[in-house]
Amino acid sequence: MTTYKERNEIRADVPPKLTIAEIFEILADGEVPFRFTAYDGSTAGPEDAQYGMELKTPRGTTYLATAPGDLGMARAYVSGDLDITGTHPGDPYEVLKVMEEQLQFRRPSALTIANITRSLGWELLRPIAPPPQEALPRWRRIAEGLRHSKTRDAEAISHHYDVSNTFYEYVLGPSMTYTCAAYENIGQTLEEAQENKYRLVFDKLRLKEGDRLLDIGCGWGSMVRYAARRGVKVIGATLSREQAEWAQKAIADEGLSGLAEVRHSDYRDIEESDFDAVSSIGLTEHIGVQNYPAYFGFVKSKLRDGGLFLNHSITRPDNNRSARAGGFIDRYVFPDGELIGSGRIITDIQNVGLEVRHEENLREHYALTLAEWCKNLVDNWDGCVAEVGEGTARVWGLYMAGSRLGFERNVVQLHQVLSVKLDDKGRAELPLRPWWT
Length: 437
Description:
About 40% of the residues lie in helices and about 15% in strands. It is α/β, with parallel strands linked by helices. It has two domains: about 5-125, no CATH class; about 150-420, 3-Layer(aba) Sandwich (Rossmann fold), CATH 3.40.50.
């Protein structure tokens, strides 16, 4: 059977109506690398392909047509109107990899667009409500406060983190750590690598028994408890109420209440100061690039002279492009999230008067971490769906698999930046060479 492209070019007089698969073929620049099937019975791509994509409903076509790109595909996939075959919805990594490597889309001519429109019909081209997992667009979030105001930040964090602690236990594993692990080798388990990450942060900050640590954006308190087990007095802050409640219970269960506390609080409301160290593990992505000077200035104000600050965050590989996230990430994963290169982070840390002493990129480590989270989601799929619904579970599978690919391809990176607050004579009182392994 010949394809539409092989049969004819669109005739200017009476162009033939197109099937869904023919439209897909026209828009694809080159061969379709997987089997595509549509609800109208049409197909494209090799019959023996390992992976497939099934467009199941007209609603899925509307999602794809009214929001071209990652947002439209996410809407169709999250709603169940678009299925991927040959892989599990908890880990569509392999299909995303094939699409990244072998599928490109071209800009059709005006005549082609007209024929596609006529073939689909106006009814399918009218925008409809997105799946319920989608956050409001940026321009409508103003009702929740100005960008990165306390109110709006709280709403954004709640959207992502107040999903279900049980769901996170399924996906993250016993460490309840939702940040990049640090692998000594690829044979390490996720739990070993997460423990190693906390050891690395602890050692970089030169913490010892009796020291005071502020952990900003502490999540479920894993860093808080790691330090408290070693005699450090710790305050953690998170904007997620569910995280704070889970963390406080875990602290009590371990008998660490005399040393550790996790507050449901904006970091800007922390009044204590003179800390020996501040850790910020996975928070900078949420505060907004324009707020870096204020944030790092706040951190400096909380440190004693000679105190150390470690910033651990996702970054871009350069400092030139827009910091704002793409449509899918902004609407389904991290509303108002922003990323920029490590150069901007280092510059703004330096500009508030902290001295940067070390930085390293753990990009490949995050790809390994995400692969393990996807495996956990697949292994616990039924429990995850029962806890949060299939749509939300699909969001997570798509997001984590896509992020894994992004870290592998150097679309995003993960940097740890270590800095120190000098005394009034410019002294740091630190060893001459790195003191951690």
